Amino acid sequence: MALSIGDKLGPYEILAMIGKGGMGEVYRAHDSRLNRDVAIKVSNAQFTERFTREARTIAALNHTNICHLYDVGPNYLVMEYVEGNDLKGPLNFDDALPIIQQLIDGIEAAHEKNIVHRDLKPANIKITPEGVVKILDFGLAKAMELPPSGDGTPDNSPTLTMGMTEAGAILGTAAYMSPEQAKGKVADRRADIWSFAVVLYQLLTGRKLFSGETVVEVLGGVLNKEPNLSDAPPQVHRLLRWCLEKDRKKRLASISDARILLAEGPADEGVTSTASGSRGGSRFGMLERGVAVVATLVLAIVSFVHFNEKPPVPPELIKFEIFAPEKTAIQKFQVSPDGHKVAFFGDGVDGRGGLWVRSFDSTESKRVADADLDPPLFFWSADSRYLAFGSSGGANRLMRVDVTAGSPESVCDVPNLVIGGSWRSDGTIIFGGFPNGIWRAAASGCTPSQLTQLDPSRQDTGHFSPVFLPDEKHFLYLRQSNSPENTGIYLGSLDAKPDQQNSKRLIATNLSPVYAPSPNGGMGYVMFLRDAKLFAQSLDLTKLEVSGDPVQIASGLGSSYEFGYFSASTNGVLAYRTGSAGGNSPIQAAWLDRSGKSLGAAMELAVYDSIALSPDGARAALHRYDSGTVAGDIWLAEFGRHTFTRLTSDPADEYDPVWSPDGSHVAYASIRAGGTGLYQKASNGTGIEEMLLPPSNARDLNDWSRDGHFLMYSEVSSKGTKSDLWVLPMAPEKPSDAGKPAVYLNSGFNETQGQFSPDGHWVAYVSDETGKSEVYVQAFPLNAGGAGKFPVSSGGGVMPRWRRDGKELFFVANGRTVMSAEVAYTPSMKIGVPKSLFETAMQSVQPYFFGWDVVADGKRFLIPKATVAANGAQSPITVVMNWTALLKK
């Protein structure tokens, strides 16, 4: 929490804020005991015992050129307050020499006490009005970091925490980092020597030695390029070359020797001004003069046998992390094709989900669009300029937004929910749809055409998340099926007819694929998730077949619905996120009154989606995910006791709970071998489950009539093109009708979310017959008494719920507005004009399952909302540059 002027922190009175970053704030304060001003760094976290111990060791440093650390508090550091200017260039050599010598003195004093800075850069060096050099934060970089691994393996690469520093600090830090720090090896005093040379070059030239527009470019230069030192004064060429050896074994071993190199004067002519070659010893002048003589002969030989040149150093692996914006929980994310930024969907505590974009060379995330689907399964254009995403706010649409300076605009109406896609260079877009296959559209706008269709003989339930291959004619996509042997990644073609796509499974997984190029032009990689482990498998781009064995890249990754938490660019950037409970954010269910005012939390945090209140309102049944699982179970929450009780434990996914009228049983849908079946179990947990309807086509369970006679469910047609409403008799007048489902509504459009009225004579449901999801009411049985169809919503509506007396019908509009329509039955059915009750941050606003409920009298609403943990403990996105280095492990 920020401090104000006049606040006290121990004995220190705050005078002014002088800096702010992700880790905390820096203040000027006054110590009245010693009558001096100090600088106080206040951290957002409590310091550990190890940190405090190391910090007190650093406080023992007492040197003119090192800013002194005075004191350590539970979450703050008290340091010498230094007035002056930051180190800046360019300076001529004579003017810079006193500064260089003081820098050497300060570094030398710390190294003699075995204290390493590890973060030397101009921002950590000040020049007082008297010309005294002060090195700030000496040793704190080491004290504030966990002990590094010394083996240099990719898994132990350094982690730069983006979002935890001031804007631009990551890019700045990367520019001064030694190669061994970038590769995750132990950073000793030779790392400071490297950084000293980079600072020295900038002081003398006014330019950074390693620069670029992104962290990728900067660290790529540090690791792979030999710096050109020609712009630096000749007096420092020799010093810079020795300090900038990428192999630290060949680097200047002691900062003390820098004085010798400065005193020897300019390097001889004929000696290159690029850091290269192997050197050793401490008497450099004689050795380099010898090398200069030999170099003349060597140049002639090299010009003749250039084919024996040393091959370029392969790119090294680099890791850093990206955290969510404050009070926002990251869900789905995707790296841009150019590898310069990442887009993600974030749930805020205000309940308004949105699409955000974060450049890797910035600490700021930019919100580019609101989203009414939670989460929308978005994807990038080939040029990394646009994001495409699905919307169901009123109509199913494919949207796009210019991430630089645009507002969302519609590409076209689509016949389904957009679930993942790919956008090739000529503007052709392909996308997955639920529940009817892969579709093709033009970014300029047109009527979509179908590319794949669900195959009933293979028990397909969905085709999702297509991704173009380099030929931009073929694509990978996920086929999900009720038969596990048919679920996996498949190859599709723009030239094939929907019913003639390749039926050979490439890879077994139930999560969407990602394609990544390989350094070998004829090969690529299919990246996929299986059992929370990320794999890459080679793909022959000529034969369009996978080859070899998959290689594990990372483990512990999260997933949700059909996508895993990982993404890759076209230039070697990989992003992934670990997480529990499918990687989703925890949900906080709250009670709200009719004005939207919170009446308090209803249950503890958990990860779930569909939810249903018991008839007496004392319990809720919900589809909840265990930690690290994709499939969920039915759990019961008891409000009075604040407990969760598991009702099902089958490895399959049980979802869509509905209560029997007397609350004695809970029915649910479950995906088993052969398809989706309907089941029930006693709500007290006793006994075994009973199968009500054998597995078949994809289904969603909607409601149980108040008289107990019927279950209502939606089922995808055998052709996999639309969803119809069906009823299953539970207490039929004729015993012979038991277990015989019958279609209730089959109009040629998608009908879902059927809800019986309390008297059982009417059904509220959702249909997309107008091209958008709307709420309607029809008689039950259909056309009983000659009654027709009554539209309820206008402009979009989903998830209808009746008040227990049937005189009010609620639904959700625009993904966040709870609406109410009065209902009268005499002299005939009449539905009033809906009115808005309140807006809320509702989780899982969908036209297929129910993500909320209302108590019998309509005065309280159970609204689950995505939340961000109070301590901000959400796993970050890990970004890996040059990820193919992981394949060499």
Structure characterization notes:
This protein has 889 residues and is mainly β. It has 4 domains: 1-81, 2-Layer Sandwich (Phosphorylase Kinase, domain 1), CATH 3.30.200; 87-308, Transferase(Phosphotransferase) domain 1 (Transferase(Phosphotransferase), domain 1, Orthogonal Bundle), CATH 1.10.510; 515-574 and 871-889, no CATH class; 587-866, 6 Propeller (Neuraminidase). 12% of the residues lie in helices and 38% in strands. The strands form 15 sheets. Strands 1-2-3-4-6-5 form a 6-stranded antiparallel β-sheet. The chain has a 5-stranded mixed β-sheet with strand order 10-11-61-35-34, with no helix packed on it.
Descriptive labels:
889 residues, mainly beta, Phosphorylase Kinase, domain 1, Transferase(Phosphotransferase), domain 1, 4 domains, six-stranded antiparallel β-sheet, five-stranded mixed β-sheet, 10 helices, 12% helix
Reported for the largest beta sheet, the result is: 6 strands, antiparallel
CATH superfamily grouping of the largest domain? TolB, C-terminal domain
Strand order of the largest sheet: 1-2-3-4-6-5
- Tell me the span between the first and last alpha carbons: 44 Å
Our estimate of the beta-strand percent is 35-45%
Q: Choose one word for the global shape.
A: elongated
SS content category: mainly beta
The counted number of beta strands is 61
List the total number of helices: 10
Helical proportion, percent range? 10-25%
Mean residue pLDDT? 82
Give a topology summary.
Blueprint: E1 8-9, E2 12-21, E3 24-31, E4 36-43, H1 49-59, E5 69-72, E6 76-80, E7 85-86, H2 93-112, E8 125-127, E9 133-135, H3 140-143, E10 159-162, H4 169-176, H5 179-182, H6 189-205, H7 215-224, H8 237-243, H9 258-263, H10 284-304, E11 318-322, E12 328-335, E13 341-348, E14 354-359, E15 365-370, E16 379-380, E17 386-391, E18 397-402, E19 409-413, E20 417-423, E21 428-434, E22 437-442, E23 449-450, E24 460-468, E25 474-481, E26 488-493, E27 505-507, E28 514-517, E29 523-530, E30 533-540, E31 545-555, E32 559-560, E33 563-564, E34 566-568, E35 573-576, E36 587-592, E37 598-601, E38 608-613, E39 619-625, E40 632-638, E41 643-646, E42 653-659, E43 665-672, E44 675-682, E45 690-696, E46 699-704, E47 710-716, E48 723-729, E49 742-745, E50 751-756, E51 762-767, E52 774-779, E53 790-791, E54 798-802, E55 808-813, E56 817-824, E57 830-831, E58 835-839, E59 853-854, E60 861-866, E61 877-881
Parallel strand pairs: 10-11
Antiparallel strand pairs: 1-2, 2-3, 3-4, 4-6, 5-6, 7-8, 8-9, 11-61, 12-13, 13-14, 14-15, 16-17, 17-18, 18-19, 20-21, 21-22, 22-23, 24-25, 25-26, 26-27, 28-29, 29-30, 30-31, 32-33, 34-35, 35-61, 36-37, 36-60, 38-39, 39-40, 40-41, 42-43, 43-44, 44-45, 46-47, 47-48, 48-49, 50-51, 51-52, 52-53, ...
Helix pairs in contact: 2-6, 4-7
